[in-house]
Every structure is written in structure tokens, then in C-alpha cells.
Amino acid sequence: MTDIEITGGPAAAVHDEPVRFPAGFVWGAASASYQIEGAISEDGRGPSIWDTFAHTPGAIFGGDTGDVACDHYHRYREDVGLLADLGATHYRFSLAWPRLQPGGRGPLNTAGLGFYDRLIDELLERNVQPWVTLYHWDLPQELEDAGGWPARDTAHRFAEYAELVYVRLGDRIADWTTLNEPWCSAYLGYAGGVHAPGRRDPADAVRAAHHLMLGHGLAVQAMRAHDASKRVGVTVNLYPVDPVGDSEADQDAARRIDALMNRQFLDPVLRGAYPDDLLRDLATVSNFAHIQDGDEAVIAQPLDFLGVNYYTRHVVRASGGPRQAHDSVSPWVASNDVEFVSRGVPATDMGWEIDPQGLHDVLTRVHREYRPIPLYVTENGAAFTDEIGPDGVIADQRRVDYLDSHFRVAARAILDGVDLRGYFVWSLTDNFEWAWGYSRRFGLVHIDYGTQQRTPKQSAHWFAQVTRRNCL
């Protein structure tokens, strides 16, 4: 991928300088099943942990649920039309495990398969390639009742589900992602309690993280045993982690958060072993009896690509207070004494500081420190308050500026040798934003949740120009 062109030489970082991406660069938008589909009890779909969690009083901002969401289950043709209008080459979406296998085991649900058959066919008809994620957080509730991700059996159930779906849908899908952001599934769901299933047990979170990665490896093995011609990868959310100062305590705080957030997943996938310092850090909450001989080799299955989700940078310092080994309410297991520092720079509505350089940092780090592997930005985007103007236009210039700056940094990473092959904007439409309900809008397309009216924002029209020209 050497045919990228940035005119203007060193001035390429200037906002209005043209940037051309390599031929064949993937441009797409992304979504996730529970966030958009709705139809939670139609055609045999079983309950997921997010159905249960969203209906727990106080769990979701405003008491929102994904019961209807964007009604994508019934409006998928309209949404595929929006993708085509964007000039997207690919659509990254997730399959709802409880729609396909309601109890998390046994044969696939024919009616649930029918929905994805229709969606995939519609995408291909509109010349948009499907890019599937097998697991984007909606674990069947029956499996959670049996122990959830802290139970080793869940990894085996996931591999069986992955193989069944791969056999059934693989004739039309070339790109497969096993997991999306396992850190969030494990630590927000089982330690911090702010995501489904809402548990607060740090030891469970450590077990869940391992079993998620084991499930990934087992799934890759099962899928490849059936057909090795498809491209298979995994998506992790990466953050640069910097100490606020030069003190030994601050540097160690950054090391610990980096180990928990980034290296816990990159190292076993790309190096075949968990980092030693992570295991020392987590020894206060786990004896690692759940890691069996051969597990790390299973996790380290050769992959065709790595998906990188990027949103912000973490700047941290040591608080100076005592480290509590068994903090039951923090996702930062064994590091709850670390403070996250605001730098006072512009931020999105999520409170995430806007730092395009951080994307360059994580991409070049993976390129520099790990074995060669093609990379895709599988999520990047921004939540802002969007309003429809009197003329019907949604002028979300801040989102345009955000995406423009990040796209330019991605282009610079390619010039710096990173094998970056594509970029998916989060998200296609506004949607159910997990614990924030419908209060945060990431979409290129505005959703009126009362009427389900779709309205492309200014950023959608801008993005369509980028995709069609393959150029900023």
C-alpha cells in the first residue's frame, strides 16, 4: 500500500490540504445488533444480557432500552440505501447471537437466519460488502445464567455458534471479526457493572477477559477448519496511555493501565502470551487457575487482520492513596488508585478528549512492536448534540472536523509504514448508546426516535465525497 498521495509536502497536516488514499482502500460505516435492530421478541429471538440489563431500573440513562432502537430489523432496506448513498464499500455490523441461537446452544434459528440472509443480499445488491462481527456484547441470557464469560464453557459455546454461522453465511461474507472490544465486555460488564450483565466482581472480570480471548481462538480454529478462504480477525479498542509527569509512580500508573487496556489483548493475540507485568498486577485478584496449558497458543491463531477501535487518549497519574486490591466498583482492576487526568482540551459529548494524534500513536505502535498484520480502523467517530435547522439541514461541522482530522492522521500513518487498509466510521445512524441510552448521537444519519425518520447530516454528505473520491 504505497500509492497514498498527500500533496503539499510537509504542509500535509494543514486542514485543507488534499489527501489521497491507496487504491482499494475500504471505506465503511459500522453498527451493532442490540444498538439498532429492535424487534427483541420477534421470530424466535431469545433475551440477551443487554435486554435484561436495560430493563433493570437505574441501569440506563433515561430508562431507555433497545426494545425498538432504530427498528433496523424492519427498516434494513432503507438503511442499506443510506449506506449506498454514502459511497461505502463495506458495512460492518454484528450478528445478534440470541437471534441466531436463542439459548446460546443448539441449532440455529431459521427465522433469525432469514433476517441476515435478507440483509446480506440487500447489501450485495447495492454493491456494499458485508463485514460481520460475531459478538458485539449481546450474550444470550441463558449462557449468563449458566455463568457467563467467567465460565470456561461459554468460550466453547461461542466457538460452536461461530462455526454454525460461518458455515451457513460464509458463501457471501469474505470478512469476519470474532469479538468487538473484549476489554469492555469483561471489565465494564463484570467489574465496573456499568455494562451488561452489571456484575461487580474483579476476579470474574479477569476470568471473563481470558475466556473471551479463548473463545476467539477456538472460533478461529473452528472456522478455518471448515473453510480457510475467508479473512478472519478480531477488534480491540486501543488507547495511548501517558503519565501526567515524570515521576516513577506516574509512569507505573501508565504502565498498569496500558497493560490492562491494551497489552492484555494485543500480546496473547500477536505474541502468544500474556505480558508478565500484567499477571503480576492482577495476582492480587486472581490465581489464574482458569488459564490452562495450551490456552495462549489457541488465542494466538494466525489472523488476516486486526481491527482497531480508537476514540481518545488516556493521561494518568498515581493518586498517592492506598491501592485497594478488591475494589468492587471499578473497571480498572488492581489499578483503582490510578487517576485519569483531564487536559482541558475540546471533548465530545461523551467527555472523551479529541486527540487525532492518538490514532497515529496506536497504529504505529502496533506496526512497530508486533508482528506484521494488516490493520483496519473498525471504529472511530464522535458524539455531538445535533439539531435539525429550520431549513431541515443538520449542520454537524464539529463531526466533519473530527473525522477530517482523524482521516488525515490515518493517511500519515500509512506514509509512516503502517499497513492500514480501511476505515469504518462509528456509526451509520444514531442509536442506543449502551449505558447512555439515546442521549448520545454518533451517527452520520440522524434518527428521530419517535418517528424513525432518517435524515443524513452534513457529515454524511461530506463522507460521501471522501468515499467516492478516495480523497480528502
From TrEMBL:
Q: Which reaction does it catalyse?
A: Hydrolysis of terminal, non-reducing beta-D-glucosyl residues with release of beta-D-glucose
Catalytic residues per the record?
181 (proton donor), 379 (nucleophile)
Kindly state which keywords UniProt assigns to this record, in alphabetical order. Answer: Carbohydrate metabolism, Cellulose degradation, Glycosidase, Hydrolase, Polysaccharide degradation
Gene3D superfamilies in the record, alphabetically?
Answer: Glycosidases (3.20.20.80)
The cross-references to InterPro entries, in alphabetical order and at most eight, read:
GH, GH_1_N_CS, Glyco_hydro_1, Glyco_hydro_1_AS, Glyco_hydro_1_beta-glucosidase
**Pfam families, sorted:** Glyco_hydro_1 (PF00232)
Q: Per UniProt, where does substrate bind?
A: 35, 136, 180, 311, 426, 433-434
Q: Which domain of life is it from?
A: Bacteria
Q: Which GO terms describe its cellular component?
A: cytosol
A Gene Ontology molecular function term for this protein is:
beta-glucosidase activity
Name its GO BP terms in alphabetical order: cellulose catabolic process
As recorded in UniProt, its EC number(s) are 3.2.1.21
From which residue to which does the signal peptide run? none
Query: Which family is annotated?
Result: Belongs to the glycosyl hydrolase 1 family.
Write down the NCBIfam families for this protein, in alphabetical order: BGL
Its name, as the record gives it, is Beta-glucosidase
- UniProt source species: Planotetraspora mira
